[in-house]
Task: inverse folding
């Protein structure tokens, strides 16, 4: 690993490159960083850095070296907010780092800039988004996008009635349906688990209590050092989970596993996209727009349903694991909107 992969020393703002002069020391640090970074995050960062490198080189700036000049980063923001030059756009598509020509959403630009900022911080440099012209360029770009009609494409919340509809519309009776029922109910009943948490859930973290289950969360997106939090899998969710586990027939390993075309249950866990595809398949079978739903629908649906039923916001957060009241309150308030006494003044 080059010095570009070393961490920052927060106390002094200097790099620790001098402490990692040997190849063996750099390799040890590289392994620690790799093991300490969630796989999905690592893949996203790699993809965004590959895109930025291609744009950098195709735009004629040569080979990128840290720290990236602020004026080049501002140019990156402008290019992707106002539209790339046609020849650069075509070259990025030809390089395989861009799916198709045309404008990109401001959310995509923001994510790529966040990856670039992380790249800098890990190399011991200040984040280019921490004040200065790059941060200002992103602020203006977001405002411009909003004035041009950009709205975040949030997936539709799967509230209680929607979830019941998804459960009622099976593609065909099979072991996959038993698994998918258990998966949908597990995700919702446990507090709206993220799709990665559902996909990576393990049997040995389950504890049976009076006919229901308690699940020990362990590592989550916001608790990368592990969590001792427990969430319930109760009622219909426990019944569905028990039916699936009886088919799995194991006392350890992934809860939700791959199933081949012959109906044989495998040993590998699913990935997060598979969870989203289950939601979308069930939505399509129910006559709903599958593009409107995804893995996040179960998470937002749990919090929205809690609001609809008048449940305390902080009780919902205790199960969902949201840390930001601002984030979770959007869903909770959506659920309480029609029950607001001031909503029916007429």
Result:
């Amino acid at each position: 690993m080059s010095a570009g992969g070393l961490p920052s020393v927060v106390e002094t703002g200097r790099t620790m490159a001098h402490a990692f002069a040997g190849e063996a020391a750099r390799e040890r640090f590289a392994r620690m960083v790799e093991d300490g970074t969630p796989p999905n995050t690592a893949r996203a960062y790699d993809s965004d850095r590959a895109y930025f490198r291609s744009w950098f080189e195709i735009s004629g700036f040569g080979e990128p070296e840290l720290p990236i000049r602020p004026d080049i980063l501002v140019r990156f923001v402008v290019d992707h907010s106002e539209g790339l030059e046609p020849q650069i756009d075509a070259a990025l598509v030809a390089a395989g780092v861009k799916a198709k020509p045309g404008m990109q959403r401001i959310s995509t630009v923001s994510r790529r800039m966040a990856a670039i900022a992380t790249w800098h911080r890990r190399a011991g440099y200040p984040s280019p988004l921490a004040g200065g012209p790059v941060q200002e360029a992103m602020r203006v770009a977001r405002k411009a996008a909003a004035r041009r009609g950009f709205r975040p494409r949030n997936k539709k919340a799967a509230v209680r009635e929607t979830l019941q509809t998804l459960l009622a519309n099976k593609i065909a009776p099979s072991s996959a349906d038993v698994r998918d029922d258990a998966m949908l109910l597990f995700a919702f009943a446990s507090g709206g688990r993220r799709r990665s948490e559902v996909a990576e859930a393990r049997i040995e973290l389950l504890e049976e209590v009076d006919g229901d289950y308690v699940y020990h969360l362990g590592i989550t997106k916001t608790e990368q050092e592990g969590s001792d939090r427990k969430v319930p899998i109760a009622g219909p969710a426990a019944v569905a989970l028990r039916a699936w586990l009886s088919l799995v027939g194991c006392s350890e390993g992934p809860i939700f596993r791959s199933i081949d075309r012959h109906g044989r249950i495998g040993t590998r866990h699913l990935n997060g996209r598979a969870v989203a595809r289950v939601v979308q398949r069930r939505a399509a079978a129910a006559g709903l727009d599958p593009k409107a739903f995804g893995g996040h629908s179960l998470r937002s649906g749990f919090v929205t349903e809690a609001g609809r039923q008048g449940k305390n916001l902080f009780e919902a957060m205790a199960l969902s694991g949201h840390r930001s009241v601002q984030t979770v309150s959007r869903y909770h308030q959506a659920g309480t909107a029609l029950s607001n006494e001031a909503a029916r003044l007429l």
Summary: The domain at 160-297 is CATH 1.10.443.10 (hpI Integrase; Chain A). Strands lie at 206-209, 212-216, 230-233, 257-259, 265-269.
